[in-house]
Design goal:
The protein is an alpha/beta fold. The chain has a single domain (3-242), classed as Alpha-Beta Barrel (TIM Barrel), CATH 3.20.20. It has helices at 9-15, 21-30, 44-56, 69-78, 93-109, 127-136, 146-151, 156-162, 185-188, 202-212, 230-242; strands spanning 3-7, 35-40, 60-65, 83-85, 113-117, 141-145, 167-172, 174-177, 189-192, 218-222.
Amino acid sequence: MIKIGVADYGMNVWEGALYDYKYRLEVLKGIGYDGLERLEAKNQTEAIEFSADAKALGMDFATCRATCPMETLRFSAALGKKYVWTESSSNDFETFCRQTNHQARVAARFGVKVGLHNHLGLIVETHEQLDEFMKKCPECGLILDVGHLAAAGGDPLKAISDYADRIVMVHVKDFVYKDKDAKNWWDRLGFCELGAGEMGDLNKEILFAIKKVGYNGWICVEHDAHLREPIEDLKISREYIKSCGL
């Protein structure tokens, strides 16, 4: 069953940090979300306690992040989560792929997939770079960020069609241009609630396409930054997703 969550990086930027995991879950539940993308825990005790808090609220999370890659994998596996993010920080494409392939082989021993998150300004940004990475890393899944791919000139609908069986998470977002000629992507554009930016109705097509290919995981709304109280943006985005039958 598809679950609708929040990738809450932008909430942390607006609020300064995550101060109370349980409180954030309660707030998001109140506007119709099923949980957060990540449970962040610095030790085993926190991972168990935070997981129990989520369960008691009827909420959930898609993956874990700990203080090191090994614990991230172990916590995610122990709590029955299906994927972790790629960990390589190399700026060399071949090295990045080699290290990701190793991570994917190790993660598979725990029954966990490794997922690449395509992102503006990072090593896999354009559609061409995505295709090359997916070819070189056949055991790696995809954390498909439709907004970052579209803003890089890519085609999210084609990515869904081409990699339907490798998608482990979908980030939906919308963006507006601030200065199309700016060198840095964060000066070039900013993010907004679904339906209010350059993506227009493309996100609706994306959500319908995701359902059509039989995707059965998490879809997370992600605002990389907010210009007002995050809950206002997230309410609108949740209603947008509901209008697509999710």
